[in-house]
Amino acid sequence: MKDPDGGLWRRHEVESPCIRICTIHPAERICVGCYRTIDEIAAWSRMSPEARRAVMADLPARAPRLRQRRGGRAARLAGPAAGGQDIPPAGESR
Q: Cβ distance 77 to 84 under 8 Å?
C-alpha cells in the first residue's frame, strides 16, 4: 500500500527480533536465533507494542544462557578425569 506522498506505507510497530535461525534450544526452551520462547514467538503478531518492547528489553539477558558449551572435541579428548566423556576414537573399542 502506498501513502499519499508516493512512498511505501509502513506500520509503526516494534520489529521482530527474528534472524531466521529458528531452532529451539532443547534445555533452555528459547530460540537460538532470537532468544524468544515458543509462546512469545507464537503470540508476537498479537502482542501490543508495550508487550513487544518488554520482550525485546529482556532478550539480551537471555543470550548468556546459550553460551555455555559442553566442551566438544577437546573435552572428549581430555577424557573423564578432566570432565570429558570417555569416547574411543572412531574404529577403536575399549
A: yes
For 19, the grid coordinates are 534472524
pLDDT band at 6 (very low <50, low <70, confident <90, very high): low
Cα separation, 25 vs 16, in Å, equals: 19
Residue 46 pLDDT exceeds 90: yes
Query: Could you give the percent of the chain with pLDDT greater than 70?
Result: 63
Q: What three-state secondary structure class fits 30?
A: strand
The three-state secondary structure class of 53 is: helix
Q: Which of the two residues, 70 and 86, has the higher pLDDT score?
A: 70
Residues in Cβ contact with 75 at an 8 Å cutoff, skipping those fewer than 6 apart: 82, 83, 84, 85
Please state, in angstroms and rounded to a whole number, the distance separating the CA atoms of residues 25 and 18.
15
Cβ neighbours for 24, distance < 8 A, ≥ 6 positions apart:
30, 31, 32, 38
